[in-house]
Specification:
Elements: H1 18-28, H2 31-36, E1 41-42, E2 53-54, E3 57-58, H3 75-81, H4 84-104, E4 112-116, H5 136-151, E5 163-167, E6 180-181, H6 185-201, E7 207-210, E8 214-215, E9 218-219, H7 225-228, E10 239-240, H8 246-252, H9 260-270, H10 283-294, H11 300-316, H12 336-348, E11 351-355, E12 367-370, H13 392-400, E13 405-408, E14 412-418, E15 466-470, E16 476-479, E17 485-488, E18 494-498, E19 510-514, E20 522-526, E21 531-536, E22 539-543, E23 549-556, H14 558-567, E24 571-577, H15 597-609, E25 613-618, E26 632-636, H16 643-652, H17 686-689, E27 707-717, E28 720-729, E29 735-745, E30 756-765, E31 770-778, E32 784-786, E33 791-793, E34 797-804, E35 810-818, H18 828-831, E36 833-834, E37 840-842, E38 844-848, E39 855-859, E40 864-873, E41 878-887, E42 889-895, E43 902-906, E44 916-924, E45 927-935, E46 938-946
Parallel strand pairs: 3-4, 4-5, 5-7, 6-8, 7-10, 12-13, 12-24, 24-25, 25-26
Antiparallel strand pairs: 1-2, 8-9, 11-26, 14-15, 14-23, 15-16, 17-18, 19-20, 20-21, 20-23, 21-22, 27-28, 28-31, 29-30, 29-34, 32-33, 34-35, 36-46, 37-40, 38-39, 40-45, 41-44, 41-46, 42-43, 42-45
């Protein structure tokens, strides 16, 4: 007899819809197997032939952490291209390489945690490099393009499954796991949610990752907005993946829940489907979920809902249909097309901020390129390992010839002398391997340790001349002549062992502190360990005691080297900026917009020696610099593997610059709000509301060509407007232009943006050529969130349409009138007043009304706050007022800003969510403004009126 072939289970049948196949697979999994799916590292189910699975593969501007890959410009640089098509092609290349890399290394994941759509609200945010723009529409346009490229264009199967980061209102690294962003309803619906929403609605997003912070007093990992907002934007299943360690933070640092079982259950119920916690060890999360089930905090149905969302992603990635997956055989990696695309992206990201005729450089020019970034191709935390590398110096050599380019790095060169008169030396390391950080890849590069195969520094012999590199804020790196940086490994010894500064905790940074015992002597503090360098018999190490006193014997000052190079050149290029691992990165916000002092000194030295000095800023964020007297200024984000070639070609005029600033460049630190002030409306933040004069405005960028705008026309369509105008290249070179369309309410009844981006397009025009551009602008582009109605409203009146080359360089304008929806007074008799729906506030923050839903209002630091609710309709009259509040303090009510009419005292309630309802007599009729003053550490949830 012949054995019968077992029937194919339905979940393996590609003819069935995914939903039915997932139903079948869920029914076959045991409860314990399903629970195990909730951890980032899902184990295999061998009895069903199901492979292990991992959520999360970093791919912000190339496949990261997993070894060599094509490295594109940083995300903020991609944002500066303002080119949706280009960014889509970058996404295609990144996801194609992810597939090719996975084919030879199954550690590479296809559930990519990218892009970051947090808005660049505050330029001191340490992770500025990861976002696209301060504007919601530009951010969503670039993010949508990238996710479409990552997803692929097959109707059923996905090349990779992108997850958006970081939900929600996340712009600070300072105490990021315990700070709460106070986000009023208008800011939430007009600013923070739109960047996510438009990208999700576009249909190429597999899920989101909640951020570490709290919003309105509630951790993002238990946010009701996941259910109330995110999941209403699409019919597709969305996988919500926690950020690393955030589930444990709910108890350990935020103290929001008493037990991990409560916290885990609350996160699952809120919509978190995959828990990234405790690395590859899933036992903690599994135990917490099992405990929550035993305690009745979760049901099996809750587990099934989360597992279904993960399985939906896995089916879309073709895991269960290898014969049908159109991307299964992808092997394109580091192809000529990818290299060309990396160069194209780097070229399009360059922004010409100022040009008084110095650029482009002539063919026979003699150039001095100087500065700390002149011969660097910097990587950031979310970069892959470079296969190809081009620094500004290398690019200029290639373009102009090495005989026409002089170089001075501008570092101070020193020997470190001990009190015994000996010098610190780097011993020879014969036979040591020449390793590159991260070349082998790592699931978690934070766990990579420093090298211990090299000998530690000694304190004998003539000493080694170190390059002392000052990155500002007193943070230094020291580099040996062979290019290796001084670093500290786990054994505490100091070695010249790192190819670059990097790591989750950077082990290559130091600080010089004055010695109290020796005049002109210093202690050398290692910032990674907080310990001081000391000299021991077995070598130089860091220790908690007996710090060595060191004297700096300067062999060359960086400013002298820069001045010499500048004096003999026709044009000087000062290449300044940041190292993405130092002074502004994940876990560390910046403290100032200023260029580091040492780099300012280099710029002054170059300008003093040669007035034909241009400043080239290569940085992950904006700077406030004095550009007066500088004939040219450029900015580019760290541009990836082709950065130097792209810069040289742009400087030479082979490419006309056309990048545009994706965020405002402020002139002074005093122009900035507090880092934790998330009220962009009340704080007058970003180009939308800023009333000062920026150093360079949002959307700014110059060209080697000139462009004329004409023929602005508007046609009304159902649901919106069609706006068109022409752009003509009136210059003598082929160049790109970025046409920008803004809208502005002429006479709004509430604070509205000074202007707001409605559409944009990057286009290339030959000299004399013209193009007619047309944009569809929906009515929603003119709406605002009406807190009285808790929904968007199009206000009647005039709206300007502004077309031009930046938010301030407006070339054409016209006004349209909308009938709109007239304002209606607040129906306070019917609904009362939710405290968070104020029109104006002073000294108030939004907090959580309960652990699961709703907002309340509290005075900052428990002192005094004022709330204003305009146009409240009391009808024919009311006789009673009631307040719902917790804590203790006083709520005072007045009408139309007059004297306090009634005061209600809230005596101490049992807990912060134990609300008391207090009432008092009040007389009011007609339409009045209600003013509330809160005194003391109380939470006001609601005010009601009756009678």
């Amino acid at each position: 007899m012949t054995a019968q072939t077992p029937p194919t289970p339905p979940f393996r049948d590609p003819r069935l819809p995914f939903a039915k196949r997932i139903d079948d697979l869920l029914a076959r999994l045991t409860l314990d197997e399903r629970i195990a799916f909730l951890h980032q590292f899902t184990p295999a189910v061998e009895r069903l032939g199901i492979a292990a699975f991992r959520t999360g593969q970093e791919a912000l501007h190339g496949v990261a952490w997993m070894g060599p890959a094509t490295v594109f410009p940083q995300a903020v640089g991609l944002g500066a291209t303002w080119n949706d098509d280009l960014v889509r092609r970058v996404g295609e290349a990144v996801s194609t390489e992810a597939r090719a890399m996975r084919a030879r290394d199954d550690r590479v994941g296809l559930n990519v945690w990218s892009p970051t759509v947090n808005l660049l609200r505050h330029p001191l945010w340490g992770r500025n490099e990861e976002g696209y723009s301060e504007d919601p529409r530009l951010t969503s346009a670039i993010a949508t393009a990238y996710t479409r490229g990552l997803r692929g264009d097959h109707p059923l199967y996905w090349r990779t499954a992108p997850v958006l980061k970081h939900w929600l209102a996340h712009n600070n690294e300072t105490r990021r796991d315990t700070t709460s962003s106070s986000v009023r309803p208008r800011v939430l619906h007009e600013y923070d949610l739109p960047a996510f929403r438009a990208t999700v609605e576009a249909g190429a997003v597999a899920g989101v990752m909640p951020a570490y912070n709290l919003v309105n007093g509630r951790p993002n990992h238990v946010s009701p907005y996941l259910r109330e907002q995110l999941r209403t934007w699409t019919d597709q299943e969305l996988l919500v993946c926690s950020d690393a360690g955030a589930p444990s933070n709910l108890v350990d640092t935020e103290h929001y829940f008493d037990t991990h079982e409560e916290a885990t259950a609350a996160a699952v119920l809120a919509g978190v489907d995959s828990f990234t916690d405790h690395g590859t060890d899933s036992s903690q999360i599994v135990g917490r979920v099992q405990g929550a089930l035993v305690q009745g905090l979760l049901s099996e149905a809750d587990i099934d809902t989360a597992v279904r969302r993960q399985l939906d992603v896995r089916f879309r990635l073709g895991e269960f249909d290898p014969g049908s997956d159109p991307y299964a055989g992808t092997d394109a990696f580091d192809t000529p097309a990818h290299r060309a695309l990396a160069q194209e992206a780097a070229e399009q990201a360059i922004v010409l901020l100022k040009n008084d005729g110095l650029l482009p450089l002539g063919p026979d020019v003699r150039v001095a390129v100087v500065g700390l970034l002149a011969d660097e191709c910097k990587l950031d935390w979310y970069s892959g390992t470079l296969i190809h590398r081009s620094t500004p110096l290398e690019g200029l050599y290639e373009r102009f010839g090495a005989d026409r380019v002089d170089f001075a790095e501008g570092v101070d060169r020193v020997r470190l002398r001990t009190t015994q008169g000996t010098h610190l030396s780097v011993p020879a390391a014969d036979g040591a391997a020449d390793e590159v950080s991260g070349a082998a890849g790592a699931l978690d590069p934070a766990l990579l340790s420093g090298r211990t195969d090299l000998p530690p520094l000694t304190a004998d012999g003539p000493g080694t001349e170190f390059a002392l590199i000052d990155w500002g804020e007193g943070v230094l790196t020291l580099r040996a002549p062979d290019g290796r940086y001084l670093s500290v490994a786990e054994d505490g010894f100091v070695r010249a062992s790192a190819d670059r500064p990097g790591g989750w905790v950077v082990q290559e940074t130091f600080r010089l502190e004055p010695s109290q015992s020796h005049e002109h002597g210093h202690l050398l503090k290692h910032l990674g360990t907080g310990r001081y360098v000391t000299v021991a018999a077995d070598g130089v190490k860091v220790a908690a005691e007996n710090p060595a006193v060191l004297f700096l014997d300067f062999t060359e000052r960086g400013t002298d080297a820069v001045a010499r190079a500048a004096a003999s050149a026709d044009v000087v290029l000062v290449v300044a900026g940041n190292d993405p691992h130092i002074n502004g990165r994940e876990t560390e916000d910046r403290t100032t917009l200023r260029l580091p002092a040492h780099q300012e000194r280099l710029l002054r030295a170059a300008r003093a020696a040669n007035p034909a000095t241009a400043l080239v800023l290569v940085s992950a964020y904006p700077y406030a610099v004095d550009v007066a007297g500088l004939p040219a200024v450029l900015w580019t984000a760290h541009g990836g593997q082709a950065a130097g070639t792209a810069l040289a070609r742009t400087l030479a005029g082979d490419v006309s610059p056309a990048g545009r600033l994706p965020q405002t460049w402020y002139a002074f630190d005093d122009d900035l709000p507090d880092l934790l002030d998330y009220d962009v409306i009340g704080g007058r933040q970003t180009y939308l509301y800023f009333e000062g004069t920026p150093l360079f405005p949002f959307g700014h960028g110059l060209s080697y060509a000139s462009f004329a705008y004409a023929d602005l026309r508007v046609r009304r369509q159902p649901g919106g407007l069609t706006v068109s105008f022409s752009v003509t290249n009136t210059g003598g070179t082929t160049a790109d232009e970025v046409a920008q369309l803004y809208v502005r309410a002429v006479a709004p009844s509430v604070p509205r943006p000074r202007r707001e981006l409605a559409a944009h397009r990057r286009l290339r025009l030959a000299p004399g050529a013209s193009a007619e551009l047309s944009f569809e602008v929906p009515h929603s582009a003119f709406e605002f969130w009406d807190v009285a109605l808790s929904r968007p409203r199009l206000e009647p009146g005039g709206y300007e349409l502004l077309a031009g080359a930046s938010s301030e360089d407006v070339r054409l304008r016209t006004t349209v009138e909308f009938d709109g929806e007239p304002a209606a007074p607040r129906p306070v008799l019917e609904h009362g007043l939710n405290a968070g729906d104020f029109d104006e506030q002073r000294g108030a923050i939004l907090v959580d009304r309960t652990r699961t839903a709703g907002d309340a209002v509290s005075p900052v630091d428990g002192e005094t706050a004022e709330l204003v609710f305009t146009a409240c309709d009391f009808g024919t009259g009311v006789t009673d007022v009631s307040v719902e509040a917790a804590g203790e303090g006083v709520v005072e009510l007045s009408l139309d800003g007059g004297r306090s009419y009634v005061a209600l005292t809230v005596t101490a309630t049992k807990g912060r969510y134990d609300y008391a309802r207090l009432g008092a007599a009040v007389t009011a009729d007609g339409v009045r403004d209600v003013h509330l003053r809160l005194r003391g550490p109380l939470r006001l949830a609601h005010v009601g009126f009756s009678g």
